[in-house]
Structures are given as C-alpha cells and as structure tokens.
Write a structure and sequence with these properties.
Layout lengths: L3 H17 L7 H13 L10 H4 L10 H8 L16 E3 L6 E3 L7 H20 L3 H6 L4 H11 L10 H10 L10 H13 L9 H11 L11 H12 L5 H10 L6 E4 L2 E4 H12 L11 E2 L5 E2 L1 E4 L14 E4 L1 H9 L2 E6 L3 E6 L2 E6 L4
Antiparallel strand pairs: 1-2, 3-4, 5-6, 7-8, 9-10, 10-11
Helix pairs in contact: 8-9, 11-13, 12-13
This protein binds zinc ion.
C-alpha cells in the first residue's frame, strides 16, 4: 500500500517537475510524434484506411497504424507482451500471409472491414464517453485503451494492462472489484486523480507517469493463468450444484469433444473436469492437507496429472491429484516412484517419502 505521507511528498516533488521541467514528463519529440500520428490517422481519415495501412508488418512498414501503436508510441502506453493477434489482423513474419482472429470474420477482407468499423465506432464512442458501448466494442482491451488515450487524452488514461490497473488501484487503496472491465478501472483511476486537490491539475498522462515513476509494479505479478480463470468462472456458475451432480457430470463426460457446453456457455472440457475435482476434493492438497484461501474468500489449489497430458493422461478423477503449489512442483520435478496404482488409490514414493492417496470420489 502507498503510504499517504509519502504519496504527498512524491506529489510535491512531481508537481515541481511538472511546473519546471514538463519536458521530462512528456518529451517534445514524443509529443511531436503523437501529433503526427493523430494527423496521419485522424478520425475522418479512418473510413479510407486500407489493410496495408493498418497491419503490423515488422519486415517493412514503420508507418502502419498498428506499428505506431505498438512501437513508435510505445512510450505512451506499453502494449508489448501480448500476442500480435490483439490487433485482429497481422502479417506473418515468416509466411508473409495475413492472419486474422476468427471473431472478426471468415476472410481477411471481412475481418479487416469489421476491425475498421470497430475502430470508427470506438472513436465516436470515446468522444461522447459512452463507456458501455466502449466495453462492448470487440477490439482487444489493451488496444482499445491505447486508442482511447491517444485520441482523447483528457478523458482516458494510458495504463493499459489489467494487472497494472489492479496493482495501482490496490496500492492507492481505491475500492474496486477485480472483475470490473478495464474500461471501468481506468475511469475509477481518472476519477481518483480528478478528486485530488493537487493531482486534479495534472493531465492523465502526467498522472500515469507519476504512478510508473514512483510506484512501478513489480515484474511478473502473479496472476491466474487462462485455464485457472476459466475454472474460476466455472466454479462461480456451478456454486449450487450438488456433489452428486458433479460426480455424475464427471463420470458421464465421455465425449472426446474438447469444448463442451455448461449452463449456456462453452468451456474447455478439461477445465470443467479439473474444477469439479478441485471442488469435490475441497481444494485440499492430497499430500499435506493444506488449503490456500484467496483474499476474495475463494480457494486456490493446483491440479497435477498422474499420467501426463502429453502421454494421453486424462482429466478423470483417478488421474488428477489436487495439490498445493509446493507439492505440485515436487510432484512434477521430484524423484517419484509409483508403488501401486489402481483406479481407487495410488501409493508412491516422492523424494523418498511414501504417500498413499485415495482416488475415489465420495
Ligand atoms: Zn501440499
């Protein structure tokens, strides 16, 4: 948490920097680049945008919309780290072919037209601050954040990553929920700045520079991976499902389909199975009995395949062990010898310690 007295001291320091050397917060060269971008890609020119003006093509163009977004204006909001598909359409470095996300259409043309329309819509929604429509817009969250900031820097802030948004909101002790859309989290931060007696005079770009200068988020913030997130959602959706129903669901899930429907939404079959097993095992490590409680009151546990997935190990209850993070790593990396294995129990030695684990579901 950010100490309130320290925050005030840092604000004071930043305030003098802002008044005396604003070029250290936004360099004139960068400001010029920004203006150039807004001129080349001004709102009224967007309808004439062609795919080749848009795509990230690391081999030859340093002038496309996406190149500006990701590289030339990187100092105004970092978009690196997520995959090139965040733009919906890009040119493959190796094959020189266009690759597009299927959600935008079946063909490259269809996809590009949809992306262009989404861009145009986003700009008009940004202008009138229609946050709900902005949330619905199908461009990727970081990309939307960066576009909105570049075109409307007085309304939107250039903190693009969801992890960073959570980090700053936590540090500043601003009430929020992690489930909120990034669009809302940014609005909360801007609102916080605008209600501060000193920071209300700062631009959003100055505010984000301030946060990154004094309170830079640590690298590699822990975050649930994509499968763990999906499992969490499944757990919310199946909260009232009885143990018996979960067991029935698990044992009748014989379909080899990878994606299955659950309460009106599609999920990876593996994630449903793993989530149900975690829940049926009470999120307790099957080796040491430890349960980890998260700050939201839910539980955290990991799942390990006894026969590895790449060796065709399935997500059946007799092939999954629910483990704490320490035992998960030890199980994966330690010296293990299986002594006896049936569908009901497994006995093994792990780094010379013997374990007997019941695999039955009650
Ligand atoms: Zn354990």
């Amino acid at each position: 948490m950010i100490d309130k007295e320290e925050l005030k001291r840092n604000q004071k320091f930043f305030e003098s920097l802002r008044k005396n050397s604003p070029q250290l917060i936004l360099s004139p060269e960068l400001k010029e680049e920004w203006n150039k971008f807004l001129d080349i890609f001004s709102e009224h020119k967007m309808k004439n945008l062609r795919a080749e003006d848009y795509v990230l093509d690391k081999n030859n163009s340093d002038a496309s919309f996406c190149y500006w977004m990701e590289v030339r204006l990187n100092m105004l909001g970092n978009m690196h780290g997520s995959f090139a598909l965040k733009f919906g359409l890009y040119l493959s470095k190796e094959t020189r072919e266009y690759i597009h996300t299927k959600k935008f259409g079946r063909t490259k043309e269809e996809a590009f037209n949809k992306i262009k329309q989404s861009l145009i819509d986003l700009l008009s929604m940004g202008k009138i601050n229609d946050l709900d429509k902005i949330k619905e817009n199908s461009l990727s969250p970081m990309f939307k954040g960066k576009i909105l900031f570049l075109y409307y820097p007085n309304k939107f802030i250039n903190i693009l990553s969801n992890k960073h948004l959570n980090y700053f909101l936590n540090e500043l002790e601003i009430p929020y929920s992690e489930d909120l859309n990034e669009v809302d989290k940014r609005a909360i931060l801007v609102n916080f700045k605008n209600n501060d007696p000193i920071m209300k005079y700062w631009t959003n770009q100055q505010f984000s520079s301030f946060l990154y200068k004094f309170y830079r988020p640590p690298k590699n913030l822990p975050e649930l991976d994509i499968n763990e997130k999906e499992q969490e959602e499944i757990s919310h959706k199946t909260r009232e499902m009885s143990k018996e129903d979960k067991i029935t669901y698990l044992t009748s899930m014989q379909s080899m389909e990878e994606i299955v429907e659950l309460r009106g939404k599609s999920y990876k079959r593996d994630n449903i199975a793993i989530q149900f097993i975690k829940s049926l095992r009470g999120y307790k490590c099957q080796l040491c009995g430890v349960t980890i409680t998260k700050k939201n009151g839910e539980f955290y546990a990991e799942a390990s395949h006894i026969t590895a997935k790449h060796k065709k190990g399935s997500e059946r209850p007799d092939n999954i062990l629910i483990l704490c993070p320490n035992h998960h790593k030890e199980f994966d990396w330690g010296n293990k010898q299986i002594i006896k294995r049936t569908s009901e129990e497994i006995i093994f030695k792990l780094n010379n310690k013997e374990y007997k684990v019941n695999l039955k579901l009650k």
